[in-house]
């Protein structure tokens, strides 16, 4: 079972597809691949070698734009393949400052000073 990209995009309220998403490799997350069966180890190795490894201690969080989650179901012996878009946003700051940090310039016509925005 699969979904076409046009169906996924049409079902989203606000889609976030842009070319920069695909300039860096995704963060690969493998779930339930710790079994000792040789075919499961082979699948895990195959997926790990499809994408370059990421050093989690050195990686710039702003460069990670996608996450690829692959889950192995031991009962049905099927793989669930999920591809997510990741967006880093500032947390714990005012709405005006958040817009400035994301390089979206707010309408400041109703303010006398930038301190009113912050």
UniProtKB/TrEMBL annotation:
GO terms for molecular function: rRNA binding. GO terms for cellular component: nucleolus; preribosome, large subunit precursor. It comes from the Eukaryota. Signal peptide: none annotated. GO terms for biological process: ribosomal large subunit assembly; rRNA processing. It holds the Pfam family Brix. InterPro entries: Brix, PPAN-like. Residues 1-118 form the Brix domain. It is found in: Nucleus, Nucleolus. This is SSF1 protein. It comes from Aramus guarauna.
């Amino acid at each position: 079972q699969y979904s076409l990209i046009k169906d996924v995009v049409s079902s989203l309220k606000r889609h976030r597809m842009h070319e920069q998403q695909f300039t860096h490799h995704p963060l690969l997350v493998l779930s339930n691949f710790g079994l000792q069966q040789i075919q499961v180890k082979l699948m895990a190795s195959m997926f790990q070698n499809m994408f370059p490894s990421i050093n989690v201690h050195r990686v710039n969080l702003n460069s990670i734009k996608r996450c690829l989650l692959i889950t192995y179901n031991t009962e049905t012996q099927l793989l669930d393949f999920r591809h997510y878009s990741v967006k880093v946003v500032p947390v714990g700051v005012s709405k005006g400052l958040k817009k400035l940090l994301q390089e979206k310039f707010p309408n400041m016509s109703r303010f006398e000073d930038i301190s009113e925005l912050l």
